[in-house]
């Protein structure tokens, strides 16, 4: 938002600066005969080109003789042409710079999006692997539960379970000043 505003202000400032530059070119054309001849040649070539272009656009004959501009008018036209050329060159350079800057910004955004997408793909693959591993573990558990149990292990399990249940849990060990017999001790006392 701020950049276009400065771009417009810069273009306006450039046009304002180009007018004195054009005036300076006119003065230089009056002082240096070589530069004056160069400017006059540029102005005459521009005059011929624009006149032919206008004639073709309007459908008139283009083979007719084109009268050259007088020297003062040629210097004025060349100075204006060079001033406008300078203005458009700088404006074009500013536009090219903006386009390249925007393209670099878009490339950075695209690279960031691609990185995020790659990261999501890796997470997805990890989740798929975890799901496959959990399925495999579930199948192993189902197979283990479907096997017949041995009877020799079962009688010892209730006793181990009773001992596990009777163990004090939580903060009960703090209150050990009163001794409560555990379930196995009670069974032994009763028998």
From TrEMBL:
The keyword Transferase does not apply. GO terms for cellular component: mitochondrion. InterPro entries: OPA3-like (IPR010754). Keywords: Coiled coil. GO terms for biological process: regulation of lipid metabolic process. Pfam families: OPA3 (PF07047). PANTHER family: OPTIC ATROPHY 3 PROTEIN (OPA3), OPTIC ATROPHY 3 PROTEIN OPA3. Residues 117-144 form a coiled coil. This is OPA3-like protein.
């Amino acid at each position: 938002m701020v950049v276009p505003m400065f771009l417009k202000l810069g273009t306006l400032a450039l046009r304002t600066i180009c007018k004195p530059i054009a005036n300076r070119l006119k003065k230089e054309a009056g002082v240096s005969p070589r530069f004056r001849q160069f400017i006059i040649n540029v102005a005459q070539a521009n005059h011929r080109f624009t006149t032919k272009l206008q004639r073709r656009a309007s459908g008139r004959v283009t083979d007719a003789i084109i009268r050259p501009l007088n020297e003062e008018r040629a210097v004025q036209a060349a100075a204006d042409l060079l001033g406008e050329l300078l203005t458009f060159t700088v404006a074009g350079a500013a536009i090219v710079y903006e386009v390249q800057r925007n393209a670099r910004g878009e490339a950075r955004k695209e690279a960031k999006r691609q990185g995020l997408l790659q990261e999501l793909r890796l997470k997805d693959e990890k989740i798929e692997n975890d799901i496959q591993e959990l399925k495999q573990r579930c199948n192993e558990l189902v197979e283990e539960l479907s096997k017949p149990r041995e009877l020799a292990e079962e009688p010892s399990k209730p006793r181990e379970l009773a001992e596990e249940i009777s163990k004090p849990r939580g903060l009960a060990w703090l209150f050990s000043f009163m001794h409560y017999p555990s379930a196995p001790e009670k069974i032994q006392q009763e028998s």
